[in-house]
Specification:
The protein has one domain (2-49). It is built from no helices and five strands. The protein has strands at residues 2-5, 20-25, 28-33, 39-41, 47-49. It has a five-stranded antiparallel sheet with strand order 1-2-3-4-5, with no helix packed on it. Strand 2 and strand 3 (28-33) form a beta hairpin. The protein is rod-shaped, with a radius of gyration of 18 Å. The protein starts with a strand and ends in an 18-residue tail after the last strand. InterPro entries: YheV. It comes from Pleionea litopenaei. It holds the Pfam family DUF2387.
């Protein structure tokens, strides 16, 4: 198995840059995102597995009343 990072590649799932590795093995090659876990088989257009990391949401309360 051969694994290498692809410089300048953007993950189609999380849109992060420089987090994609290309993994080549006897079964074929696929790309893997080390940030969110997205994987896609490079010989097919169908994703192998799509794992999304839970998103965090920040909420800020703002008082608009001037007392």
């Amino acid at each position: 198995m051969k694994k290498r990072f692809i410089a300048g590649a953007q993950c189609p799932s999380c849109s992060e840059l420089d987090v994609i590795t290309l993994v080549e093995s006897e079964q074929g090659s696929h790309m893997h995102c080390v940030e969110c876990g997205y994987e896609e088989n490079m010989t097919d257009s169908e994703p192998v597995a799509k794992k999304k990391k839970p998103t965090e949401q920040m909420i800020q309360w703002v008082n608009i009343d001037s007392d």
